[in-house]
Structures are given as C-alpha cells and as structure tokens.
Design goal:
CATH class of one domain: Alpha Beta
Structural class: alpha/beta
Number of helices: 11
Shape: elongated
Number of strands: 24
CATH topology of one domain: TIM Barrel
CATH superfamily of one domain: Glycosidases
Helix content: 25-40%
Radius of gyration: 23 Å
Distance between the termini: 23 Å
Length: 448
C-alpha cells in the first residue's frame, strides 16, 4: 500500500542548479508527490561531509546539519537545519514520511593524522567538529582497543572505519539516531553500506524505544546490503532475531533480474518465478527498486517501465528513483502509461498474495487476490508482462473471479496507439488477458 521515492540522485544539486538549496527544492515538490501517492521520501545524508559540495557519503560532523562554517561553508550541499525541518514539516502535512540515510561505518575529512599505537600506522583519524559533538581519535576507528578482530565488515574506499564497540562511538550514534527521529522528525532509516559493520548495530538502533510526539515510535528501517539472495536472507534472519521492529533490505537480486528483462534480448521470463529474489522469500522484508544513485553505468537503458510495473504490482515496498520520475520523464501524469498510473494501481488494487497464472519465455501473468481490513480495501488485479517485441501477446488463464468484468488501469509498450480492452471471465474464471509488445498491462476487477 505504500510507495517510497529516493528523492535525489548522484550530484543532483549540481545538475539541477540547486546547490545548497535541495531541501527547499524538495519542499516545492512534496504537494504534487503526495497527490501522486508517494508515502515516503528517502533523503540523502543530512550531516556535514568532508566537503560541503559532496553527496554526504563521506561524513565529517554528524551533528552539523548545515549551521557551522566548516568544510567549505555553512550549509551542506543540500541546505541547513531550518530548511530540512521545514521540508519535513511540509512533507508530513502532505502525508509523506521521511527516511534518513545513515552512513555510520566510515568517516572522512579528518583534521589531523595520527599514529595508531596498535599497529603503528599513520591515519587521518583526528576529528574536531565545530558542532562540538562526537570528537574522534584513533581509538574510535579500527583497529581499536575495543575489538578482538581487526575489522567487523568490509572497508570502504580506504576511509577510517568506525569501531562501534567503542562506548563513545556507540553512544554518539545512538544520540545521532535519536536526534534524527525525536528532534528533526524523521520516520525511519536507510542504512548505507551495511556490509561494512556488524548487523547488531542496526538491530540495536532499530529496537531503541524512540519517543515522537509524546508516544513510543518504531522507525521503518531498510539496509543497503549489496549482495546475493542467500547473503541477504542470512543477514535478514540474523538482524530480525534481535528486534521486534522488523528490518528490511533492498532487493538487489530482483533488480538485476529486472535489468535483464529490460536490457537482455530474449530474456526468459520464467527466471522471474525461480525464487531468486528477496521479495519471493521474504515479501515483508523486501524493498524493491529499479535503479538508484549507485548504479552508474549499470542503469537500465531500455523499456524501464516494464521493471517499474513489476515492482508496483508484486509484494514488497517499492522505491521509485527521482531521476526516472522527473529527469527521464517516466511519471507521465494524467495518462495510464507511466509511473503515476502504476502508483495508483499499487495503492488501489495490489493487495493480497501474488499467484502466478502463467509463465513462459515471453509471457508472464499473475494475479493479486485482494485484501481488506477495517481501513483499506485492495480488490486485486491481473498483471501481464509481454517480452515479445513485435506483437501483442496474451493467453487464457484461470483467475479466482468467475463472471467478472475487468478494466485496464495501467499499460505501456511499443504499441503507442492501441490499448487493452475490457475483459470478462467465464463461469470458471477464465479469460484471455493481453499486453502490448515489450510492455505490460494491469487489469482491475469492477464490482457493480
């Protein structure tokens, strides 16, 4: 029922001519995004980085949100604290939550080099931030006196790597998380480079009893664990054993399957049914996506809406990429052929279990069986994905609905003129559901 948006891309302030004004720029968009059905925005890192013209993945002063003159200026590349708080308030007023990007495994921009007495190596590990909070020295990083192993995860780009077992580090990261939720008003966390530190740290930050608006509050938590299905599954099992606040992970295995659907000629759509994705095994723990700021030369090039259609009708928490929505022009408001129509299909119809009705190399058909509680009803849908590049394709499938009329609510493909027609199942629930060439169609039941 919910849809998030990654509300930035790599070097977005520069490309949009909004340097040090990104929070204000986003605030101008939240009303239209709320109306489109976006429920949450994942924001870039909010703290002062090693330079105030970077994306923030090189944190220097966790408690400077753009109010101290250091590292090239006062504001971060995105703005200052007052502008951030104004954005959060306006987003909340439009029914949109905010997720903070947590970069807690590596630091950059130290003020001095120092020798680590444990190994005699000289590193940039002396931090004296102007906020006055969380000053750091060699013992806050690996190797540290507080560890038995040299490092607890993968290193990143040679940056000094925080030792979370140091009580000072542990405490200050708790203070940082509490400030984001309880003072700034964030609603959840996205943990960057979760391979770089122990899953226990995400577990304890997630299970803390935050207080927001005078009541206990449990944040939404999702991790970037850029790995295969088995690794992600093992990590999710471990981290969710630590907390009742269930933690999700971005579904990288599914994303690479969807890239193949879009960019690999004659890709076999039966590969979408083999269970090799987080959403297939752990739908409640999967954040699905098509592209993000890290993909670089690996972005999906062709027929990207096929990938978006897939994540918007299946289980999981779908994430839309700002660059696709705005810069690539895939929102297409007011039409049935873009992301906006897919959001509406997701919100209104994509409830209940997914059931695959047909799969062959070039055609994939599934149904969502519908779901209802005292607040929300999603009546279900039929989804058709067609891999053939030169013709409409469909086949007769047995649905759960007998003698039921269906109307097309969202579609796109290489046929820009024709559109799907209404369909009606027979007494046994059978009907043929087609989709455009290299495209998709979503049909919703109409109850009269």
């Amino acid at each position: 029922m919910a849809v998030m948006m990654q509300a930035f891309y790599w070097d977005a302030p520069k490309h949009e001519n909004k340097e040090h004004e990104w929070w204000n720029f986003l605030a101008e968009k939240v009303e239209e995004l709320g109306k489109a059905g976006i429920n949450a925005l994942w924001l870039p890192p909010v703290s002062k980085a090693a330079n105030n013209n970077t994306n923030g993945y090189d944190p220097y002063d966790y408690f400077d949100f753009g109010d101290f003159d250091q590292k090239g200026g006062v504001k971060t590349w995105f703005g200052n604290r007052a502008e951030l708080e104004a954005l959060i308030a306006k987003a909340h007023a439009n029914g949109i939550g905010l997720y903070a990007d947590m970069v807690i495994n590596h630091n950059s921009g130290a003020d001095e080099e120092e020798i680590n007495p444990l190994d005699g190596q000289k590193r940039w590990t002396k931090f004296a931030p102007k906020s006055g909070r969380f000053p750091r020295d060699w013992n806050c990083f690996h190797p540290s006196r507080y560890e038995q192993v040299m490092i607890e995860g993968e290193n990143f780009a040679g940056f000094p790597h925080l030792c979370h077992r140091n009580p000072v580090v542990y405490t200050e990261l708790f203070n940082y998380a509490r400030m984001l939720i309880e003072e700034l008003g964030f609603d959840g966390f996205r943990f960057d480079f979760a391979k770089g530190f122990g899953s226990w740290m995400i577990g304890v930050l997630s299970k803390y009893r935050y207080v927001k608006d005078g009541a206990d509050f449990s944040p939404y938590v999702v991790a970037e664990l850029w790995s295969g299905t088995e690794d992600i599954d093992d990590w999710l099992a471990k981290v969710n054993d630590m907390t009742d606040n269930q933690i999700a992970a971005f579904d990288f295995p599914l994303r690479y399957k969807l890239k193949d659907v879009c960019d690999t000629p004659n890709y076999d759509l039966r590969n979408l049914t083999d269970g090799g994705a987080v959403v297939m095994k752990r739908p409640m723990h999967a954040a699905t996506f098509v592209d993000n700021h890290d993909m670089g030369d690996n972005v999906i090039v062709n027929d990207k809406l096929m990938a978006y259609s897939f994540i918007m009708v299946h289980e999981g928490y779908p994430c839309i990429f700002w660059y696709d929505y705005y810069n690539n022009g895939l929102a297409r408001p007011g039409t049935p052929n873009g992301i906006d129509a897919l959001i509406q299909a997701h919100q209104k119809y994509a409830g209940g279990d997914s059931q695959i009705l047909h799969a062959d190399p070039d055609l994939y058909i599934m149904q969502r069986i519908g779901w209802k509680d005292e607040k929300v009803e999603q009546v279900g849908l039929i989804y058709v994905l067609n891999n053939l590049g030169d013709q409409w394709s469909g086949t007769s499938v047995k649905t759960q609905w007998a003698n039921q009329r269906f109307v097309p609510v969202a579609w796109d493909g290489h046929d820009e003129v024709a559109h799907p027609d209404e369909r009606t199942t027979d007494g046994d629930g059978n009907a043929e559901f087609p989709a455009p060439p290299r495209g998709y169609a979503i049909y919703a039941p109409v109850f009269e």
